[in-house]
Amino acid sequence: MTKTLISIVGPTAIGKTSLSIKLANYFNTEIISADSRQFYKEMSIGTAAPTPTELASAKHHFIHHKSIENDYNVGAFEKDAINLLEQLFKLHDTVIMVGGSGLYVDAVVNGLDFFPEIDASIREGLNKELETEGLAILQNKLKTLDLESFNTIAIDNPQRVIRALEVCIGSGKPYSSFLNKEKGKRPFKTITIGLTTDREIIYDRINHRVDFMIDEGLINEVKNLTNKKHLNALNTVGYKELFNYLEGEWSLSFAVSEIKKNSRRFAKRQLTWFRKKEDIKWFDFKSNLQDIINYIQYKTNEI
């Protein structure tokens, strides 16, 4: 029997975690997280990681399995996820994958793109430039060298910006020119479910989620990580803004408003990424669960 990976994608705060648990329970299977921010055990509230109750509702993998001190990238995740899927498919005909990190989702479903070897000194120089000049300088440099990547990658993530820039500089070609080449087939079939709704509703859900995170103790979570703020994993929405607040540069209300604004921008980039994928079946986030199950079963029977 052909094995099936059900991949659930969509913008932040749309309800992917809830749907993944319902589907995992229905198909009596396990969940792989492809949310690159939820890998880190020190970052729970600010990444909207599944709660202890949610984690107990279905077996999850790749949640809080790394420290922010670990060097963990999409290549390592692809290898780990494919190895795990090989084991899970011995026990289950279907496995659920959930996450809004498009690059990590693509790595599992399609495999990674090939990139040329780049001189390590280029990355070192870009990291120094990040420390001395700030992320905006690198973002503008990427915009000049590769506008397509500037418009599609997680532009607020310094690791992604530096990776794209080092390929542009080291190869003399746009980072985007190496993407989406034909790759080897996976030994499983993927059915991709996208959750979405009107943009105004998505933004409202994001705003409410940020308020909830603050109420749940996000400020204390960030405060406990202040001495690690230099790590790349923490240069992300929800953390970098509160570092500015804790250091007295911003008021709390302004920091919270910036988290909301940057989260909305992140959701917009997620939608831009996923909308380009022709194999995604989109459902409104309020869709009846049985309708989604019916679609999955219909696609499974096509296999």
From TrEMBL:
Catalytic activity: adenosine(37) in tRNA + dimethylallyl diphosphate = N(6)-dimethylallyladenosine(37) in tRNA + diphosphate
UniProt KW Cell wall biogenesis/degradation keyword: no
Chain intervals for the UniProt region annotation (Interaction with substrate tRNA): 35-38, 159-163
One term of GO molecular function: ATP binding
Keywords: ATP-binding, Magnesium, Nucleotide-binding, Transferase, tRNA processing
Cofactor: Mg(2+)
ATP-binding recorded as keyword: yes
HAMAP family assigned to the protein according to its UniProt record, in alphabetical order: IPP_trans (MF_00185)
PANTHER family noted in UniProt: TRNA DIMETHYLALLYLTRANSFERASE
GO terms (BP aspect): tRNA modification
InterPro entries: Dimethylallyltransferase (IPR039657), IPT (IPR018022), P-loop_NTPase (IPR027417)
Annotated EC: 2.5.1.75
Gene: miaA
Family recorded in the similarity comment: Belongs to the IPP transferase family.
Site (Interaction with substrate tRNA): 101, 123
Pfam family, one: IPPT
Quaternary structure note: Monomer.
Function: Catalyzes the transfer of a dimethylallyl group onto the adenine at position 37 in tRNAs that read codons beginning with uridine, leading to the formation of N6-(dimethylallyl)adenosine (i(6)A).
UniProt protein name: tRNA dimethylallyltransferase
Sequence positions that bind ATP: 10-17
Residues annotated to bind substrate: 12-17
Main enzyme class: transferase
